[in-house]
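Go through this pair.

…
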Amino acid sequence: MFEKIHQETFGKSGCRRIVPGQFLAVDPKGRAVMIGAIEKQKLVYILNRDAAARLTISSPLEAHKANTLVYHVVGVDVGFENPMFACLEMDYEEADNDPTGEAAANTQQTLTFYELDLGLNHVVRKYSEALEEHGNFLITVPGGADGPSGVLICSENYITYKNFGDQPDIRCPIPRRRNDLDDPERGMIFVCSATHKTKSMFFFLAQTEQGDIFKVTLETDEEMVTEIRLKYFDTIPVATAMCVLKTGFLFVSSEFGNHYLYQIAHLGDDDEEPEFSSAMPLEEGDTFFFQPRPLKNLVLPNLIYFCRLIVYSSLCFEQIADLANEDTPQLYVACGRGPRSTLRVLRHGLEVHTHEFDAYIIVSFVNATLVLSIGETVEEVTDSGFLGTTPTLSCSLLGEDALVQVYPDGIRHIRADKRVNEWKTPGKKTIVRCAVNQRQVVIALTGGELVYFEMDPSGQLNEYTERKEMSADVVCMSLANVPPGEQRSRFLAVGLVDNTVRIISLDPSDCLQPLSMQALPAQPESLCIVEMGGVEKQDELGEKGTIGFLYLNIGLQNGVLLRTVLDPVTGDLSDTRTRYLGSRPVKLFRVRMQGQEAVSQWRSIDPTSQLSCTPILALEKLGAVFNQVAFPLQYTPRKFVIHPETNNLILIETDHNAYTEATKAQRKQQMAEEMVEAAGEDERELAAEMAAAFLNENLPEAIFGAPKAGAGQWASLVRLVNPIQGSTLDQVQLEQNEAAFR
């Protein structure tokens, strides 16, 4: 949770254009912060720490300038010199006093640097320069020992590097998509960026308004920037802000849709993507071209982290009704913009997912076991091979097509052809604990006796000739999964009532021999050996798995979780970490998340001590008030109503600066024909192949964006939606430049 450590009031009349708060910039060394308004006012605060290391903030220092509009503010990296801030500004005083409008047409934007003099404790305008192009935002370039300092100015069609002194301006065109359906007269701008910096290098990721991300690097010669290089990186939905995390992820926030967390798989250095440079000769107004493609350097995990549902009142419409007949009303919301628009159905409560691969449920009672199949309905299975007149301690898949049931009086090995091999406990002993993986079964009998079984290549489960007597009763056990390419897991972890955990070898050379021991502060409740932080490996049969570090997780009865490193060679235990989870015993379960092993902790216990088994449930968004289902739309939703007789939804969707599907197809056909006609006789066949590939290209507009048709161009449709299934029952596409509004 965030804790408020300081609160500063800098405006009394609400949100106005002269009240600071629209822009926020921090000195890269953390010494000062500038808060700017859209017009006139800018305040600078000096940040310090007192003797107790608490943050202290000075009184505000004014950096106001009347008759000035501010477009962007950033902190300039000048090392440990006086903090400096760069602002994109425009002075409108002359334009305001000229009734002819000539001054307004000739007004130029300026790049202004403000310096905070820490010695004199005031802010001065150090330098100001008029710009040729109208800039929309700035990017800070690392300085001091990390880089050449200065700023990158992002403007229409160009990105420009500027700095003090003898540094000349370096200017590079922004590349455009090849064979783009956009209005050719329309300019291109960068809308957001992220900076990645290490001790030896830095680069920027800048995103255009079409969603294309470019990797931007600077070439230097003795602290002077000589060249800007741009390389196409990937295309993702247009963001309002991006941030490169130190863990190798790219967080992307959006104003009109879901937020995403991408993993950076490659830095784009080794691919065949062309690199564009400011040093390449181009005529004024010309630019570079590239071909967009699906993700290559970024990997999108399955989890979408956030969603902003309430956008602006003009772009979000909702109705509350119980259209699903659930006795609790649902909230139906049409939100978003353009091809990323969605119709969302919200229900109060947490979102729960059942494991999609489970086919059976095994329910164990005090004196019986019930096998249920999962399908359209849940039905009892009578020919499973399980013994139904006894409780089940463990059930698992053994090998590729066999099952194993461990119950107090024995073990049932159920083969694929329904043959059952059964092992009974000797004398009056019973099985109290067990551990099972794909090829091994270990049981603990009353009195602390361990019995080990291993599956041979023919699929037969064989008992090891010797048994192991432990020094105390066994309270929990764990086996790791069999590593890919191996016949067995080498280690067995055994928790004893004497507050110890023992590591037992299962290697044929020293089977059931103790390898190491760890004393515990309380009696163990459960154990779980998992491999985490590994890399993918493929065995001789082509089966894939991960090889990583072995960890022994120990849940204690006093609510403490221990995690210790298990040496994969010697079986030694080391580097124990401790975490208190609660007052109840900690039960551990092995699960798989995103293709790798993980541990799930369960801290509550059944007071009746009855054994039970349930399907896996995932509560992924514990902080959410609503769970939701989203259905994609084509254009920005303008309004929807509920049809009173059918309970279906009728939506109108409309976008300005957009093409209808028919117009887009005509435009593509026209451009394909022009490609063939413009080619010479020798290149006609190649041009025809390129034209055919262009016509067949279908990039999803929700990611790559919809083409911009130009001012005055409209696209619209009317849609009939089943709100329960989210399916479109019918839709009417209006003609180009016809638009439906509420």
Notes: Confidence is low (pLDDT under 50) at residues 305-315, 603-619. The longest helix spans residues 661-678.
